[in-house]
Amino acid sequence: MASVYLQLCVAALLLDLCVKGEEITQTNAEFVFVSPQTANEVLSRPRRYNSGHLEEVLQKDSLERECLEEQCNMEEAREWFEDEQKTLEFWARYVDGDQCEPPPCQNAGKCQDGVSSYTCWCKPSFSGKNCEIVLAQQCSLDNGGCSHFCDMKQWQVECHCAPGYKLGPDQKTCTPTEPFSCGLVKTGTTTKSILTPRTSNSTQRNSSIQYDNYDLNLTMFYEYYDDSGVRDVPSDYQGDQGQVLEENEGSSSDNLTLWSTPNRTDPNAQHNADQRIVGGDEATPGQIPWQVALMEQRAGILRPMPFCGASLLSEVWVVTAAHCLIKRAGKTIRDDFFVRLGEHDVLQDEGQERDYSVSEKLIYPNYNYTKSPYDHDIALLRLSDPVLLSETRRPICLGPRTFSETILRTVPASLVSGWGRLRFQGPESPRLQKLEVPYVDRTVCKASSRESITRLMFCAGYAQEQKDSCQGDSGGPHATNYKGTWFLTGIVSWGEECARDGKYGVYTRISQYYKWIAYKTGMKGKRTERSRKVKS
Predict the structure, then answer these.
(1) Distance CA 147, CA 164 (A)
(2) Per the database record, which ranges form the Peptidase S1 domain (predicted)?
């Protein structure tokens, strides 16, 4: 009986609690239940830290325990991986997430995560932070595919042409727009020297260029290039005419004879058709139409003779070596000469020759004959009248600094020419000679000479072969052919004897003087003086 009574009491008590619970739920639910966000904060499981007891000793290293369930430092991660590279990769993701998600690298580049950064490892044909730059479309690779000058505009190649040319439909090639555009040779055949000493053999190759007549649209394209290597010159500088100069006696540090001085040898010395300017070949008439001869009347000789060479830059401007203008006897700037174009055989009147007087001589401002007859060895000559251009009288192209320096170093060989001596202290050549010479590495160049080889000079030629420019060639062109157009890359300056073993010809580096030439001649995109063109 007592047991039945106890069960009834318990049942009554439970019924009463249920009724009261329902009342509480209906009237005070807001005080019992909380929001899911608050509940999650209460029920969140914090990372467990080492208690400082024996976990590190009694338990095996666990990446999950060290860094995922707990907070770890880089040293603890390094203990787990036991590899520096894997540790760095893990730590970069652990600290701030994976910076390679989503993948930022383009063109199949591989992304490497870093702390607050990433690195894209690009395929060989691409570059840039995200491998977005196509190297095949850069000026640094094959000149961007441009025939003449290459410039980068918003990471894209932009080609430009020399005056007298226009871009073709492909926006890469340059097409001549004038009958006598610079740097072209239109002859039936041209000759190329075989690079073996003491041989008269040569190979023939055709070189015929068709001309299209387009309207000339000259732009200020040269301003796209950095030519800061040459200091600006005063706007009122008019050259050093009349300046008294002292000869730098004893400047040579060895017993070798330097041949930079103009020729004074009788050109009527015995001529042998097989002789060449120290291993060169006789040029074909009209093959080097920008070749200029600086002519003087010598005592006892009826015909004027060349004493130095030069190059035609435009209808009214000629560039030569500064030392050619020094008159040693009076130690002043000489004025007893004239300019001749279209010359080939100085002993014959061939009908193509044209003579011009000089109205202005501009020697580079930093040229100091007393300090060094060879440093800054460059001068400009302004002609009194425009040149009558023809197939045998045509200017050579002038490229911006970076372009000129690049082709000088990369093109296998360049062409030098002149009427200089056929051998050291030998007779001069009455006919124009030419010679292909390779560029010489600057370290080799400097080691070959006791004279100072400055950054404004470069060497070209052969260490063991008897091929070289020589006395009387000074001031003449060092020309480089790039994709069918000839550009002036140097000026014949000086050397230690001629074709001597272990010695090279030294040339003025024309790329260093582009800014000065453009400033003085006004050739920075347009020609201010133009002449009528005649064929003869």
Answers:
(1) 14
(2) 277-522
Phi/psi of residue 400, nearest 5 degrees: -60, 165
| Position 62, amino acid | S
Q: Which residue out of 148, 160, 323, 478 is catalytically annotated?
A: 323
CATH at residue 511: 2.40.10.10
Question: Among 342, 210, 227, which Cα is nearest to 283's?
Answer: 342
Alpha-carbon distance of 155 to 166, in angstroms, equals 23
Which of 509, 311, 520, 294 minimizes the C-alpha distance to 396?
311
Ranges of beta strands (E only) in 386-460 are 414-418, 433-437, 457-460
| CA 113 – CA 99 distance, rounded (Å) | 6
Supply 268's token pair.
């009527």
Which of 377, 404, 478, 493 is catalytic? The answer is: 377
Residues written for the chain: 536
Residue 213 contacts residue 177 (beta carbons within 8 Å): yes
Q: Which of 474, 478, 493, 511 is catalytic?
A: 474
On whether residue 14 sits in a domain, the answer given is no
The rounded distance, in Å, linking the Cα atoms of 159 and 161 is 7
Is position 323 annotated as part of the catalytic site?
yes
Q: Is 461 within the bounds of a domain?
A: yes
Bridge-based pairing of strands 338-341 and 133-134 is: unpaired
Contact predicate 103/119, CB 8 Å = no
- Whether the model pTM is above 0.70: no
Number of domains making up the chain: 1
Per-residue pLDDT 10s for the chain (536 aa) are 566 666 776 676 666 655 555 555 555 555 556 676 666 665 555 554 455 544 544 444 556 556 655 667 677 767 767 777 777 777 666 666 677 888 889 888 889 877 777 889 898 767 788 887 776 567 888 898 999 999 988 778 899 999 999 999 999 999 999 999 999 997 543 433 323 232 233 333 333 323 233 232 323 333 333 333 333 333 343 433 333 333 333 333 333 344 444 444 333 333 332 223 455 688 999 999 999 999 998 777 788 999 999 999 999 999 999 999 987 654 788 888 999 999 999 999 999 999 999 999 999 999 998 888 899 999 999 999 999 999 999 999 999 999 999 999 999 999 999 987 655 455 567 899 999 999 999 999 999 888 889 999 999 988 766 554 555 579 999 999 999 999 999 999 988 766 466 789 999 999 999 999 999 999 864 433 333 343 43
Domain-embedded: residue 69? no
Domain of 511? 191-205+234-521
How far apart CA 360 and CA 471 sit, in angstroms, is 25
63 falls within a domain: no
- Distance (Å, whole) CA 163 – CA 178: 9
Tokens of 160: 């430009």
| Catalytic residue status for 377 | yes
Determine how many CB atoms are found less than 10 A away from the CB of residue 102.
6
What's the rounded Cα separation, in Å, for the pair 181 and 476? 20
